[in-house]
Amino acid sequence: RRIAVLRERAPGETRVAATPETVRKLIALGAEVRVETGAGVSASIADADYQTAGAMIGSAAEVLGGAQIVLGVQGPGPALLQGVAPGAWVVAILDPFAQRTQIDAYAAAGLESLAMEFMPRITRAQSMDVLSSQSNLAGYKAVIASADVYGRAFPMMMTAAGTISAAKVFVMGVGVAGLQAIATARRLGAQVSATDVRAATKEQIQSLGAKPIFVENVAGIVGEGAGGYATEMSEEYQKAQAELVSSHIAKQDIVITTALIPGRAAPRLVTDPQIATMKPGSVIFDLAAPQGGNVEGTVADQIVERHGVKIIGYSNTPAHLPADASALYARNLFNFLSAFWDQEAGGPVLDVEIGEAIRLTQSGRVVHPRLLG
Ligand code: NAD
User: Fold this and answer.
1) For the Alanine dehydrogenase/pyridine nucleotide transhydrogenase NAD(H)-binding domain, which residue ranges apply (predicted)?
2) Ligand 1 centroid to 270 CA: how many Å?
3) Which residue in 12, 194, 253, 302 has the most C-beta neighbors within 10 A?
4) Of the residues 204, 207, 236, 258, which should be mutated to test ligand 1's pocket, given the most ligand atoms within 8 Å of the CB?
C-alpha cells in the first residue's frame, strides 16, 4: 500500500501526520511511505530523518502519484489530490461542518475521506482518539501560556523579602483538556478549583487535588448525554451556574475555559460584566476560541485586554506544541491503520462500527449521516 504524508498548508498549522517512528512502523506493516519535502520542518523533523526511517522524499506530485492512503493533520485541498489512486483514503481532521465544500469535492473526486475527529469514544479506539491526544496537550499549553503573560508567580513563595501568595486558577469544563489544565496548574503550585455540568467530574476534580465548584439543588439537570458528552442545560440551571460563577470568578487570578457541546457553538460561560469584577492583571485562556469561544470578547490568536484582564485564545492550541502534538497525532494514525491492517488485502480494511462513524465520503457520494438531510 502506498501512503503519502503531506506538508500542511493551512496557516498556523505546524503539525505533521507522521514521524520517523510511525514511518518505520508503517513500513514494517508492509506499506511504502512517501513524505513531502519539508513536511516535518515546523515540528523539528528533518527530511533526512524520514529518509533514514525508510521514506521516499519528494514534491507533492511525486508523493501523491498513485497513493492509496493520504495522511494529513487538516484535510488537504482537493486540487492537490489529482494524481492519487482511484478511491484513495484521505485520513485527517476534516472539520466537515466548516469545510463542507472540501468534503463535497472529495466525494466528487471519488475519494474515501475519513474524519479522525469522529472516532467513537469506545475503549478499543482510545489509542486512535485524536481529540483526546490533542486536547490533553492543549490543556497543558493553556496553563503555560497563561502563566507566561500573568504578571505574578503561580506558587506560594516564602522569601527573605516577604511572602508571595499562590495564584488562584479556575478551570471551567473538565473534559480531557480541563483535567490536564488542573494537573498542570497544580504542578505549578496554584490553588485550583474547577466546574463542569457533568456531575461525574466532581470526583475527578477532587482526585487531582482541586476544589469542585458545582451548582446544587437545581431541577432539570441531566448534564451528561450520549457518549459521555455534555448536553445543553435548562434555563434555570444556566442562571444558577452564572450566579455561582460570578461570585467565584471575582476572586480568581487565572480562568481556563474548555467547555464544548458537540455539534453546537461553544456555550458562553464568562460575560463582560463578570470580567469587569476580576482583578486587573488576571488572565483568561479561552480554549473554545476556535468554536466561537466561552468568553465574551475572545479574539482568536490575539491577547485582548478588557477591564485590565488579559483574554487569550488560540485558533489552534495543539499547533503551539508542534513536536509532541505531531508525535501523538502520528501515533493515533498509526494505531488506527495498524488495528485494521489486513495482510491478505495488503492494507487496512475497516469494520462496520468504526467505518460508519468516521467515513464521510465513498464511491462518489457523501455518506455520513450527520452530513445528510
Ligand atoms: P469536550 O471537549 O466535548 O467538552 C469539554 C468539557 O466541557 C466537558 O467535560 C463538558 O462536560 C464541559 N461542558 C460543556 N458545557 C459546559 C458548561 N456549560 N459549563 C461547564 N462545563 C461544560 O469534552 P471531552 O474532553 O471531549 O470529553 C467528553 C467526554 O468524553 C468525557 O466524558 C470524557 O471522559 C469522555 N472521553 C472518553 C474517551 C474514551 O472512552 N475513549 C476518550 C476521551 C474522552
Assistant:
1) 147-313
2) 18
3) 194
4) 258
Of residues 66, 75, 275, 285, the one with CA closest to residue 173? 285
Identify the pLDDT of residue 238.
80
Mutate to test the pocket of ligand 1, among 201, 261, 271, 328 (most ligand atoms within 8 A of CB): 261
Q: Is 22 left (phi over 0), alpha (psi -120 to 50) or beta?
A: alpha
| ipTM, 2 dp | 0.95
- Going by C-alpha positions, the residue among 100, 96, 105, 59 that lies closest to residue 78 is 105
Q: Does residue 340's CB lie within 6 angstroms of at least one atom of ligand 1? A: no
The answer to whether the CB of 133 is under 6 A from ligand 1 is no
Place of cell 475527578: 204
Question: How remote is the CA of residue 323 from the centroid of ligand 1, in Å?
Answer: 25
Nearest atom, ligand 1, residue 177 CA: 25
70 sits in which H/E element? strand 69-74
106: its cell numbers: 472529495
